[in-house]
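Support request, please re-run this one:
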Amino acid sequence: MTIEAKLHRANGALTTLSNGRHVWNADVDKALGSDDRAPDPHDLLDSALAACTTLTLELYIRRRQMPVTDVRVTVDRVEEKNDQGGVRYQMQRRIFIEGDIAEEDRQRLLEIANKCPIHKLLSGEIHIDSELA
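Re-run finished. Output below.
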């Protein structure tokens, strides 16, 4: 699948993203010279983890017909600069599960959350090939 990003320079740094089926936006905050009209790329990355975790859990809960009434996931991030000028990006994911389920089922849901494809991707090694078109 291809994601296309199109910059709209007349609107600061507002960028339209599309996968061919859906359209969404990204932006940067006012301090960076834009109008802060949409989430920034870091928010989009964090939201991908939160959404994937929630959806992975929901699919498992449905299959097992567990008595879960609500699932909510939050992701906070901390960025720390290292001595080499790079950035260490740390995510803190909190999973809130409501329903009358046993502690062992809650622990199983944590295991399932760690199997979400975005969690696995972000926990592994990522290679990006770039070229000018």
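Residues 3 and 19 are 5 Å apart (CA to CA). The chain has two domains: 1-38, 41-123.
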